[in-house]
Amino acid sequence: MRRAVPDAEIEARRQAPVPEEIDPAVEALVHDIIGKVADKWTMLILEALEEHGTLRFTQLRKAVGQISQKMLTQTVRQMEQDGLVQRTVHPVIPPHVDYTLTPLGKSLGAAFCGVWIWAETHRDEIERAREVFVTRETVGAQTQSNPGSHGS
How far is CA 82 from CA 29, 106, 123, in A? Predict the structure, then answer.
């Protein structure tokens, strides 16, 4: 994902004190949005449209890779419903449909750019933690399957 230009309003709100009370409607919206956009297909579609601009359905499917036609259709429709993607149908035969990020979709991409940068920054630490976990789990499984074999 390309590095996005920071949103001035979001950056200003990050610096503000945390509110004492959380608006339940905002909390519900945040949970809903995270549930929808935190899946891999939404993120990959955001990335493809950010990198390539407007794409036809088949181009988008190719850019995302390994996504079924049904899943791509469901995901872009959900993104359109949430105002993240604009779908344009051209009245030709066969039908020609284009998808492009809306300003709202671009701002979401900018927000998730932080996750990308975080992953890039901490990649080695994450890989080490995963290796330690696998080693620990493997040794633990071997110890449980052979309880008398460790030092007896």
Answer: 11, 13, 31
